[in-house]
């Protein structure tokens, strides 16, 4: 019974995904081909990880949406301002991002979901962190640029 209860959310998600996928629009001339979108968002995410490691305010400001919601695996939630402050002041320092899996799914014009697993090495003050995370991120096209809108992760 416990196993069934643990699997219930998975079955619900699979059902929801199937129902939602049936309602998604086909790619039209107004929506670029998936390959072009995925390449652009991959480049934007590569820039995000580089800017995050560098703690570079201008680069972070360019890639983070003004509406960023960053939910850490610890449960702490940051806005764009609070997350940038932590990175720029080096209160939190990301040393490496090692994607074990990174998948992009364009779900509508201007919205791409990014899911996967990443190994992150970081420092928060004097505390060293080695994180093995599953994540869901949302990218949104804003004024012709792909910007990082949301992150939610949990530990493996």
Compile the SSE list and pairings.
Layout: H1 2-23, H2 34-54, H3 57-63, E1 64-71, E2 77-79, H4 80-88, E3 92-108, E4 111-124, E5 127-142, E6 145-155
Parallel strand pairs: 1-6
Antiparallel strand pairs: 1-2, 3-4, 4-5, 5-6
Helix pairs in contact: 2-3
Q: What distinguishing features does this structure have?
A:
single chain, 156 residues, alpha+beta, Nuclear Transport Factor 2, Chain: A, 6-stranded mixed beta sheet, 6 strands, 38% helix
Describe this structure in words.
A six-stranded mixed β-sheet has the order 2-1-6-5-4-3. Helix 2 packs antiparallel against helix 3 (57-63). 38% of the residues lie in helices and 44% in strands. The protein contains four helices and six strands. The protein has one domain (33-155): Nuclear Transport Factor 2, Chain: A, CATH 3.10.450. It is globular. The chain has 156 residues and is an alpha+beta fold.
Compact summary:
The chain has a single domain (33-155), classed as Nuclear Transport Factor 2, Chain: A. It contains four helices and six strands, in the order αααββαββββ.
